[in-house]
Model the fold of this input.
Amino acid sequence: GKAKRDLQRQRRQNEFPAGCYKAPGDTAPRIH
Done:
């Protein structure tokens, strides 16, 4: 349903390009 689609979209937004990582509390990816 809709909740599942929202979850997938949210998960996609949490992914960062290779060479970046996200620390807890970060709002933007950091470069390695």
